[in-house]
Amino acid sequence: MAPTLRDIAAKLHVAPSTVSRALSGDHGVGETRAAEICALAKSLGYRPRPLRRLINHTIGIVTVTPDGKISDEPYQTRLLAMSMETMGEAGWHMLHEFAVRTSPELPAMVRENLVDGIVFSGMPSPELCKAIRRLGIPAISFNDVPSRCGLPCISANGADSMRKLVDDLFGMGHRNIAYVSSLTTFPSVAARAEAFEDATRQHKIKGRTITTNWIAIQQGQAATRQIMARRPHPTAVIYSTDRLAVGGFIEFARLGLSIPSDISVAAFDNTGLCASSDPAITCIDLNQGEMVARGFEMLRGAIESGEALEPVGISVDSSITWRSSCTAAP
After folding, report:
1. Which of 1, 38, 234, 289 could be disulfide-bonded to 178 (CB atoms 3.0-4.6 Å)?
2. CATH number, domain containing residue 175
3. What integer pLDDT is reported at residue 129 of this predicted model?
4. Does residue 100 fall inside a structural domain?
């Protein structure tokens, strides 16, 4: 079998896009590294494949929402902003569209042949993913699973950080912890909920999960009221997003409870809300910057090499940012 760009990249522990740029004489690759790549390619008998078409150096971002309208979800907004920044710094262009989650319709930018690759955020329909694969357009999906969409998927590993957070709260004396989860139809969200149940079960402590159908502040308030309607009250509450946590802050204040002296609060996402709240919220950072960087590198490599992407799952580590909303159990 003839060697491919990926074979050369694997031997030198570099990205396929780096190999492609070196072989095309791109000055963005260092002289020594480029010479090493060219020498190996020659020794392996590598022959470039003809390009399918001209490259526009443009990637399309498709944000998938229930109704195909503008999302006010901070996580999605920040993912889009980071994608724009990452691609712009590399000299690439970005187009953006919204799509209905259940729709099989191809985005206009694909129908009009305006983009070289596609990034999905928000779980596109399997029918849409199948149509994209059939066209041979390089595509990836964030926070999805290959078994559902048939595409390479890059997800934040929030489950391990959830376990670590519960472990640490247990070490601080908390024996009754609640979790307010967003919809577990998203694989990454379901994994966090399972990790919470596993961790509380392992420590043999009370662990209660409330699931909301949306992530607005009002849902955080309603879920917190549900939690506090039952006794004994938890000494710590973890929220699936920072907005839900802000809803919790409002309800705890209404109940006359002080954070963190009466109850500790933690959340996911680590957007600006977490740092600017009073007290600042302990958060699990889902490392969106790393997700975007790896996704762009995968797409760029496939676009420049003309080679198909395998439907693999890639996990990006998350981390806990400790702030003043958590302390020892009262």
Report:
1. 234
2. 3.40.50.2300
3. 94
4. yes
Per-residue confidence (pLDDT) for residue 239, from 0 to 100: 97
Could you give the number of structural domains in the chain? 3
Claim to verify: residue 115 and residue 173 sit in the same structural domain: no
**pLDDT score recorded for residue 2:** 66
CB 240 within 8 A of CB 268: yes
> Do 224 and 254 fall into the same domain?
yes
Which regions of the chain are under pLDDT 50? 50-52
The CA distances from residue 194 to 159, 198, 245, in Å, are: 8, 6, 20
Give pLDDT, residue 157. Answer: 95
HEC string of 177-204?
EEEEECCCCCHHHHHHHHHHHHHHHHHC
User: In terms of residue numbers, what domain contains 135?
Assistant: 58-156+289-316
Instruction: Quote the pLDDT of residue 51.
Output: 42
